[in-house]
Design goal:
alpha/beta, 434 Repressor (Amino-terminal Domain), Rossmann fold, 3 domains, 6-stranded parallel sheet, 4-stranded parallel sheet, 10 helices
Length: 353
């Protein structure tokens, strides 16, 4: 193996040795030529996977720890809402303050090291990566960790056994406070829940907070009121239409995040429902547009821009070989506005923000 920025990099020679073939054979497999037997191809592919080999797309890349790219990268979802824009702004501002460029790769699915092809952002063009939630798979995270490539995770924990710093928010208590507000201050009892994407860390803990709040207030959890908004406008709209078609009795909807909440409000209004008079709607994140929506959105405030800056700070600690925090949690805060409907019950504690 050769060294790059003090990190071990797997070479073609390492793959050849592991597979028991020549470097020329490995090259032919990587170039997908036809004159290699399937059995040999399988053996080489197995060695590539075991060693975490990726193609060196910059052969003249960094040769010492003092020679850096001056770039950091972030792998994140396609930017389609103000939450992601705010997060990216926090990341970019702090990177620029430290005279670093920010390279962004946005993906609908997951980015992954496959068949020796590197991630679009990697050790050849960045000095470290910020990974949003599940935007790269665990196998690729493991490869990056084994190569000692600086990585910080946002909105998720690392796979078991990997000491990768994570920057998270407190979801469960924030959600519980929000749901208890709907029950105790607004008088709602039939509260529907929209989950986020399957397997999403934030969505899981928001669901736990929702269930805890109902249980604490002696309200049964109704499976008919458990739906999916996927933190996405189109999916939230579909869920609203499904609930309305079934004619379910719903007092309020926790849409999972502000993007889904605003889409839910529009879908309800298009169906002739008044928000919050007929059905209240609340969100999570306190996106910049939430207070300007009609009606202004009751939500849970998350310091999204600060979270982005903190992730960059942690990444620079890793790049510089300094101490990092294994886990950096951020607290949340209830923001009460009109969409929850508490002002309709003559509540003396009503203080719009």
């Amino acid at each position: 193996m050769i060294k790059n920025n003090g990190r071990s990099r797997v070479t073609v020679g390492d793959v050849a040795k592991q597979a028991g073939v020549s470097t020329a054979t490995v090259s032919r497999v990587l170039n997908k030529t036809n004159n290699v037997s399937p059995k040999t191809v399988a053996r080489v592919q197995k060695a590539i996977d075991e060693l975490g080999y990726v193609l060196d797309t910059a052969a003249q890349a960094l040769s010492s720890s003092s020679n850096r790219t001056g770039n950091i990268g972030i792998i994140m979802p396609v930017i389609n809402n103000s939450f992601l824009s705010t997060l990216l702004e926090g990341v970019n501002q702090y990177a620029n303050t430290c005279s670093y460029n920010l390279l962004t790769f946005a993906t609908i699915g997951q980015a992954s090291i496959q068949d020796g092809v590197p991630l679009p952002l990697n050790e050849n063009n960045t000095d470290g990566l910020i990974i949003f939630a599940d935007k790269i798979d665990d196998k690729t995270l493991t490869h990056l960790y084994q190569r000692q490539f600086p990585v910080v995770l946002l909105y998720r924990l690392p796979p078991q056994g990997l000491d990768i710093p994570s920057v998270l928010i407190e979801n469960k208590n924030g959600t519980r406070t929000l749901i208890e507000h709907l029950i105790k201050n607004c008088g709602h009892r039939r509260i529907a829940f929209m989950a986020g994407p399957a397997g999403n860390y934030d969505s899981y803990w928001r669901e736990q907070g929702y269930c805890e709040a109902l249980t604490a207030c002696d309200i049964p959890i109704d499976s008919q009121l458990m739906g999916v908004g996927a933190f996405h406008d189109w999916r939230a709209k579909e869920q609203i239409e499904e609930w309305l078609e079934k004619g379910l009795d719903i007092d309020a909807i926790f849409a999972g995040d502000d993007t889904a909440a605003m889409a839910a409000i529009i879908a309800l209004q298009q169906a002739g429902k008044r928000v919050p008079e007929d059905i209240a709607v609340v969100g999570f994140n306190n996106d910049i547009i939430s207070k300007y929506f009609n009606p202004p959105l009751t939500t849970v405030h998350v310091p999204t821009e600060e979270i982005g800056r903190t992730a960059v700070k942690q990444l620079f600690h890793l790049i510089n070989g300094e101490q990092t925090e294994a886990l950096t949690p951020f607290n949340t805060e209830l923001v009460v506005r009109q969409s929850c409907g508490c002002h309709l019950v003559n509540n003396p504690r009503w203080h719009p923000n």
